[in-house]
Specification:
This protein has one helix and no strands. By secondary structure, the protein is mainly alpha-helical.
Length: 65
């Protein structure tokens, strides 16, 4: 990757500083939204947990005498 020009560095620093300034407000919005969603509908009836990546465990084979 080519090194950034001074103008690109300034732009990157400005964007990063805006993100740092907005982060607390965005975190607050997420927290408030989560609380509101739990108050409005405590149980999500349409929620299906994701499938696990590993295959389900197989029962051990029956022991032979």
């Amino acid at each position: 990757m080519a090194p950034l020009t001074p103008d690109e560095l300034r732009t990157r620093e400005r964007v990063e500083s805006l993100i740092r300034l907005a982060a607390p407000a965005l975190n607050l919005v997420l927290a408030v939204g989560e609380r509101i969603s739990r108050v409005v509908e405590p149980d999500d009836h349409e929620y299906y947990p994701p499938r696990s990546a590993s295959p389900p465990e197989q029962p051990p084979p029956p022991e032979q005498a």
